[in-house]
Amino acid sequence: MERRERGHGEEGEGGDEKWVHDSSVDYKGKAPPPRASTGVWKAASFIITIELSERLSYFGLATDLFNYFSIVLHQDSKTAAKNVNYWVGVTTVMPLLGGFLADAYTGRFYTVLLSSIIYVMGLSLLTMSQFIPRLKPCSNRKHCGHPRKVHEVVFFLGMYCVSLGTGGHKPCLESFGADQFDDNHPVERKKKMSYFNWWNFALCCGLLAGVTVIVYVDEHVGWGASYLILTSCMAFSILTFYAGKRFYRYRLPEGSPLTPMLQVLVAAIAKRNLPYPSNPDLLYEVPKSHRSKGRLLCHTNKLRFLDKAAIIEDKEGLQSVEKKQSPWRLATVTKVEEMKLVLNMIPIWFATLTFGLCVAQATTFFIKQSDTMNLEIIKDVSIPSASIYSISAVGMIISVTIYEKILVPLLRRATGTERGIKILQRIGFGMIFSVLSMSTAALVERKRLRVAEEELTAGGKTGPVSMSVLWLAPQYLILGFGDGFTLVGLQEYFYDQVPDSMRSLGIAFYLSVLGVGNFYSSFLITVVDHATEKTNGTSWFRKDLNKSRLDNFYWLLAAMSGLNLCVFVFLAKRYSYKSVDGRVVVADCEENGVS
């Protein structure tokens, strides 16, 4: 890697305005990259474009996947819901692997490029499964009692190729976009805070198009036509992403981020019997002569056992220590504090899983409810059942816009801080909406069941009820409001609070909340199914939704969300944030202080 030398007096004469000193390089591998021609919105616009296309593809597939399993593969609602949850779960957990590989070995740009190609391969398989005669579900679609096995194999292979592609695409693309803004530059730092909001605005636009245009094509033209559209859009967006190569700022991979944490743990255990030093300043840290090479963390009093990894055993001086000590025996204070940051995130991660559980209902049982309702929104104008999901995107767009344009300026003036409110406050506020959404869903489902019972009693009607599908709008809208606060907050939290070397993994941690939330949903469905069938003789989940008790399931989720919110507030009040001070990152040294 080449390095540009700073000219004499450049620091004091605007040199920091000309160059970006945040460990990034330009497309030729030179550091530091020029500020004027790289990064910020000129680079982020290319990145957001491919994100919009990917979200169009993802939601175009995910939203109508339940219907595909039910209509084409003839699965009952319980099996279809589980299969959707498994696929969404795998798709949102795979980024843990992709994020690790990007941070450790491949870098974010090339990981995004490779994973996007795998993504297109998956979409191509789905397209072929609809057009190649031997791969179609049946030779005669109108009289298809059971789909061909080869179709199921190719279809699921294509879907899980999309999962694999998402595994590298999602954690790296968002963090790569955030890398285009310099944390040490006050103007770019503010733009970075807006970046996550506008990233999600673009995400919602892709979602909106996916659940309206693509779902409409699914139901009125054919699955093959929609898959062909998605494949073409994704292929074009890859070319657009590559075209922005010269404008990007790149972070070089730094090796496995797990190795330093393991070194801290091993060193702390090896020196467990040593006494703590009388002054934390006696703990080992990178010498001043090397501090310009990285951002440092200051010492905190939490998890003090790990501090023993930074105790200097050799009394001959720091130079002797650096030469003799292995990193498995002596760690810097920064490495110790990075380990603490990751450990402090674990309770927060667990406390957000119930929100992921609620989000999972929007693409499964909410869609199933819409299948049983009147889809005519005005006279002679009907919508595909899965398109009702678009209201969630509208809710998210509204909440993100209000937060960015109204709340943040007001809160900045009120609190005197750049962010306005703390990240965990934003996340917790969004969790309130999950309680309200599940409660609303329970009330609406109870009304739908009453209407179905009345119509069955009055005229023996067993098909879709006369109740309008727009009755589902409030629960989707409220959940969308919650997404605008909680999901965007989680993205910012896991990117901002992880060590700098783990930022792709940080976004993967956020995505894993949704992935594990889907697995959690499948597990809960199985447990409730067995428990209610054993206790009442009939399960809450039956093939006929009019004989099921989804309202009780939604009340259960509302209660779980309420209790979980209390736990989250308890944890958030005791959480210490990582704060930025110029070129050096310092963890908050106050016991109860946050920034």
UniProtKB/TrEMBL annotation:
The keyword Ubl conjugation does not apply. GO terms for cellular component: membrane. GO terms for molecular function: dipeptide transmembrane transporter activity; tripeptide transmembrane transporter activity. InterPro entries: MFS_trans_sf, NRT1/PTR, POT_fam. CDD domains: MFS_NPF5. It is found in: Membrane. Keywords: Membrane, Transmembrane, Transmembrane helix. Residues 1-23 are annotated as: Disordered. Its main location: membrane. The keyword Transmembrane helix applies. The chain crosses the membrane at residues 84-102, 108-132, 198-217, 223-243, 348-367, 387-411, 476-495, 507-528, 553-572. Signal peptide: none annotated. It is a multi-pass membrane protein. It holds the Pfam family PTR2. Belongs to the major facilitator superfamily. Proton-dependent oligopeptide transporter (POT/PTR) (TC 2.A.17) family. This is Protein NRT1/ PTR FAMILY 5.6.
